[in-house]
Amino acid sequence: MVREVILPKLGQTMEEGTIVEWLKQEGDEVKRGEVLFTTESDKATLEVEAPGKGYLRKILVPAGEAVPVLTVVGLMTRTADEDVSEYEFQVSGFRSQVKEAESPVPSEPETLKPASGRIFASPRARRVARERGVDLALVTGTGPNGRIVERDVVAYLESLPKATPVARRLAEQAGLDLRGVRGTGPGGRVSKEDVEQAVREFQVPGFRSQVEEAAVSAVVMPEVAEPETLKPETLKPISGVRAVVARRMFESHQATAPVTLTTEADASAFVEVRERLKEELADELGFNLGYNDLLIKLVAHALREFPYMNARLEGDHEKGAIRLLDEVNVALAVDTERGLLVPLVRGADRKGLVEIAREVRDLIERAQAGTALPDELSGSTFTITNLGMYEIDAFTPIINLPETAILGVGRIKARPAVVDGEVCVRHMVWLSLTFDHRLVDGAPAARFLQRIKQLVEEPYLLLV
Fold this sequence. Notes:
Elements: E1 2-6, E2 16-22, E3 29-30, E4 35-40, E5 45-49, E6 54-59, E7 66-68, E8 72-77, H1 85-102, H2 123-132, H3 150-159, H4 165-174, H5 192-201, H6 210-220, H7 240-255, E9 258-266, H8 268-280, H9 282-285, H10 291-305, E10 311-314, E11 321-324, E12 330-332, E13 334-336, E14 339-341, E15 344-345, H11 353-369, E16 382-386, E17 405-409, E18 413-419, E19 422-436, H12 442-457
Parallel strand pairs: 12-16, 16-17
Antiparallel strand pairs: 1-8, 2-4, 2-7, 3-6, 4-5, 6-8, 9-19, 10-11, 12-15, 13-14, 17-19, 18-19
Helix pairs in contact: 2-3, 4-5, 10-11, 10-12
């Protein structure tokens, strides 16, 4: 009996996926529930389990190929010697007909490495590379079809000489290969002084290699750089999450009538409440309560009070209608290795602070690891984007369609302020609300932002 292995639809918004890595090979025995392969959508990398026990007899879609959801990507049988040739021909023939219908112009066979220049790496390899600051473009893959796996990143790290972080950064800026630098630190560790000495030595005629010339030209004597020593321009294709972000931001800019309101709030009480709750909830949570957890809680509270901000436009602005949404789903913009993602807390207005904090931590970790489910990244009704950790005070965020508005949060910083006629130091924060003027007028939007400011300044009002 032949059983199809299909690429499942793992979210309402998922239309296609790329086979990242086959964890079982042809002929391997498979148990029910074992992971057969990993697949990557525009937003996440997910594991796909075997539909039953048996043997993986044929892989029809190799790693690195993108196919629509519900495509047959492999064949399984109950026994190890069952013939699948006829079934394989039927499936492959159908796929070929579909491809011919979609691409009537003959094309060259695909190579294992996509023309886009995209780097294929397993989720574990990407995580180790991100944690250790490794550029995956420098790593040689030994996995299936040249895919980079965790052992490749580890091997690359082991091949590098020991060096201090400052030395590595200086060598990278100079374009200097540390393997050619003699370390004088403990255990032969390369220090900042060793790198500086190497750069100085490379200025002596007769001691410059081609790479060393580039380092001296780019860092030591930029005014005499020759064209042939400059690195060629790099084209980075817009694909994956970057393509989704680019499309959605352009659509938002074209389709909405955005207006941004800014206000400065006294966040002193907000900071104090967070510090107290951080201590009180440390044992229960196992981690520190964050400002974003509190922001999601108070924004959800404000959205329930001002339902016209928790809305979306159905149809166009001439014949459409404004739908006020029952669910308050607050998303948080998260910076990841793959690009900007917006995981959301569903029903945030009905959840307690502890539940929100746990959910936010889990969502952020899985979004950064590329394992968040598609449904966890879509369906929000309002978005918060916080750039305070980058020392940004105020900015103009772009609306996350089809939402009505987005709140931008700047850094919380101690500043001189006038309180009761006296100058004192207070923790201040800038709040920026971008809203779609097609759905909301300026005054109602300003009242909503004013309420958020009030909740930041007097967070105890959340108890009322």
